[in-house]
Amino acid sequence: MPQTRNATAKDTGDRWGGWVEENPGVDGLTPTRNALPATSRATLAEAPGSHRAETRSAAGAAFEFEKVSIAA
Length: 72
Description:
alpha+beta; single chain
């Protein structure tokens, strides 16, 4: 089942900015409002991979994995 996120959109004058509220750092700029949802979905899909590499690098050589669940 797809998860739903809340997005904020703003007209900045020459382009549109969008932010996914539940995921800091997931944002984007597009030339039109209509292009914003697709950009937000693509950025959200890429986020886990980039955050995974970033957190593992910060943890150093010795770290543990732990699964966590978030209630809807």
